[in-house]
Amino acid sequence: MPSITTTTLSFLWFLFLVPTFSFAPTPTRAIVTKTKPLLAHRNVIVLSHNVSETVADGRFDVNTLLTGRVDVLARCVNAALWVSHGIRRDTTIFLMLFPQNLTVEIRGEDVKGLNPDERTMALYLQRTLLVGSSADRKRSHANSTVTEKKDSDRPLIVNPHKPGSRSKSEKKALRTERKAREAMLRRIRKSTNETTFPQGFALHRDDSLIERMASLEKEGALLSSILMFEESGDTLWDVMEGEDFQQRRDEGGTTTLILGDQIGYAPCDNEYLAGQATVTRVSLGPLSLLTSQCIAITHHYLDRQGDR
User: Which parts pass through the membrane (predicted)?
Assistant: First the structure.
């Protein structure tokens, strides 16, 4: 049997004693943080006017959201629902699309599988609009095509040896357009076979601002604070520090935000809301902000009050 040298014994003693030293590594415990439940439910109503028939039918390309300004709708939903690594379960957002009188309702407490990017949100909105369409409209979507450029649009002479031919850049642009169109049609055909909305999404037809407000009141929002955003309104923080707002907050009332899109309010919106005694016109300052920014800032103010 080989003998154990002094060096080996010293090394074994070192391994035995190291765990008792103060600098020895210790196992770490996972830190679990719990999100504080928010005090009251929140409704966000975005009034979007001049929505094209293509957007209302869900026939838009999610890779070019600027067309039809679907990007504005997606940003508003993300600002209303998302926090870091989570969803605001106490918030519901209504996208009211005029003149088609459609309303997309998204409940934070029910949504699943979302990502905080505009393209994913646009896909969910597209599926909601397609599933909510009638059978005839679905068939028209499945058979829809995008008109190609006419031969008369071709340059008369690009290559003198091949009259009427297209340039390389034009051919590349047409290929890119065709691939995007085919991908969009594949998504539409797939969505036309869907019979259910994405979880947490719903579509209301023949909806109006008057009917939407009446529906919210039936759900128990009579004690709610209704805030209409415009540049000439009262300062939001001063309104939220007022006695009436504080009382409704303490009673657990619902806070409802009403905002316009990049176009603003229609005259009928102003006329109706001006006649409502429960509506308070508020402002975040003289500088016009994006609708999504107004939503995020108001969430921050409400969170501050909820932490008191």
Answer: none
